[in-house]
Amino acid sequence: xxxxxxxxxxxxxxxxxxxxxxxxxxxxxxxxxxxxxxxxxxxxxxxxxxxxxxxxxxxxxxxxxxxxxxxxxxxxxxxxxxxxxxxxxxxxxxxxxxxxxxxxxxxxxxxxxxxxxxxxxxxxxxxxxxxxxxxxxxxxxxxxxxxxxxxxxxxxxxxxxxxxxxxxxxxxxxxxxxxxxxxxxxxx
Length: 188
What we know:
Elements: H1 8-54, E1 66-71, E2 77-86, H2 89-94, E3 106-120, E4 129-134, E5 140-147, E6 155-168, H3 171-175, E7 182-187
Parallel strand pairs: 2-3
Antiparallel strand pairs: 1-2, 1-7, 3-6, 4-5, 4-6
């Protein structure tokens, strides 16, 4: 037997070792593939509703959830509107995006869990709006008038707000709604 020849049992054990390593690597690759594909699927599911809601195919219609009355600081009623309520993260994120029309006596009320400085923008919003920030005492603390459609400019409340009301641009000027006035609202 020459020195360069390895005994067959050693050759066989090396082959077995390489085969085992190959099998383990292939198994790890399959496991990684399935784990990663499930992670990507779950991310797709989370974003699916938002994508559907903001796609051009979805029809946007007003859904009356309640009514809201604007009143002056001395509680004199100014104007009543029907409201659609956005009281969860998804509804607040979509807001009035992609709406092509909204009647003068309609608006959207955004309800937040707690009072804090708020900021809105007009990304994917077709209609110009007046945006009214309202504190926990139901007082209008800031009005951003004539917000420009599609603008990504931040429109802050400056002061803490727990509610935000969006109405058609020009509504506040037409009815004399101003900072310091109040809102009263109720669900249907």
